[in-house]
Design goal:
Shape: rod-shaped
Order of helices and strands: HHHHHH
Number of strands: 0
Distance between the termini: 168 Å
Length: 202
């Protein structure tokens, strides 16, 4: 009679353990289903947001859903590109105009420098020619007889005559001065003296 009691106790313990395990399994399954249900809802929200062109973490943005919307966006992009191209063309035209103006200014400066050089050369030639002419006239007056040269010097302006006499050799100039009218000789002498007033004495 004792052995059946032990079997009943063992059987009851096993049944209690099975029930506990079953309850624990049900609880874990329910928890998993709850978690899976939340994850599924989140995934569903993200998929729906992507389909609507938005993100769950971003504000809803307008999207192109029709061909008219796409055409409007493309038109706006084309207009913007045309505006950029127009601005670039205007900038290039302005840069070209500035480059042309700078080149013209450079050409004018070069032409001005060339004209100045040419003018300086012409003036140098003229001065050399004038100096050579004066030198030849001075030699001519020096070789003339004093009696022939004196009347010519009397008809000259005193400053002009003084310029020739200052270029002559002192002996030839003295002979011409001796043959001049005293008043003319005095006027020429005054001019000579005035030219030497600025010469330092010491």
């Amino acid at each position: 009679m004792t052995r059946p009691r032990k079997k009943n106790k063992l059987t009851s313990r096993r049944a209690a353990n099975r029930r506990a395990l079953l309850v624990l399994a049900l609880l874990l399954g329910a928890s998993g289903l709850i978690r899976l249900g939340g994850l599924g809802a989140a995934v569903a929200d993200d998929v729906d947001a992507l389909l609507r062109g938005t993100s769950a973490n971003q504000e809803e943005l307008p999207i192109c859903t029709t061909e008219a919307d796409i055409e409007a966006v493309l038109t706006a992009l084309r207009q913007r590109e045309a505006s950029v191209v127009k601005r670039e063309a205007a900038l290039e035209a302005r840069m070209k105009a500035l480059a042309d103006a700078d080149q013209q200014l450079t050409n004018k400066m070069q032409a001005l420098v060339a004209a100045e050089d040419k003018l300086s050369a012409t003036m140098a030639i003229a001065e050399t020619a004038a100096s050579n002419d004066l030198e030849r006239l001075t030699v001519l007056y020096e070789n003339m007889k004093p009696k022939q040269a004196a009347p010519l010097f009397e008809t000259m302006d005193p400053e002009f005559a003084a310029g020739f006499l200052s270029r002559m050799k002192p002996a030839a100039a003295a002979q011409i001065m001796a043959g001049l009218d005293p008043q003319v000789a005095y006027a020429i002498s005054v001019i000579f003296a005035g030219r030497n007033t600025d010469v330092p004495t010491k």
